[in-house]
Write a sequence for this structure.
């Protein structure tokens, strides 16, 4: 199962532009095979990072962050096939790879119900014991 769909990508790339990126034969329609290959390449890259953390791939329940990463990397793949990418696409691909590197390093989590939440507010409260204070107003009155 792919982590993103054509409709996910169409939300980020205008139809006319997607047509230009995928219509390699001049058929004047979005080439779904080219699009599927870009998504597949993106998902393989994501899976390689997921495996580092011991995740079973492909994921059956796709967290939102993985879907977003798939879209960003697939769009980057489509632009790289044409040899052009604007700054926004390049930054989005850089963001996706940075996030994946942080995930592989254990700095971020997927955050869905099957995985550890990445929100520190969900953690148990901190408890600690401390000795009585040595320096107080009463013990320091002679100084």
């Amino acid at each position: 199962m792919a982590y993103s769909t054509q409709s996910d990508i169409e939300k980020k790339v205008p139809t006319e532009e997607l047509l230009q990126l995928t219509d390699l034969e001049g058929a004047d329609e979005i080439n779904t095979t080219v699009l599927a290959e870009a998504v597949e390449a993106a998902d393989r890259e994501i899976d390689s990072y997921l495996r580092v953390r011991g995740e079973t791939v492909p994921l059956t329940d796709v967290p939102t962050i993985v879907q977003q990463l798939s879209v960003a990397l697939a769009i980057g793949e489509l632009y790289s096939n044409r040899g052009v990418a604007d700054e926004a696409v390049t930054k989005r691909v850089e963001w996706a790879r940075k996030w994946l590197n942080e995930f592989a390093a254990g700095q971020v989590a997927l955050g869905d119900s099957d995985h550890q939440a990445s929100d520190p507010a969900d953690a148990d409260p901190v408890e600690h014991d401390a000795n009585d204070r040595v320096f107080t107003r009463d013990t320091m009155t002679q100084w």
Observations:
- Residues 32-52 form the longest helix (21 residues).
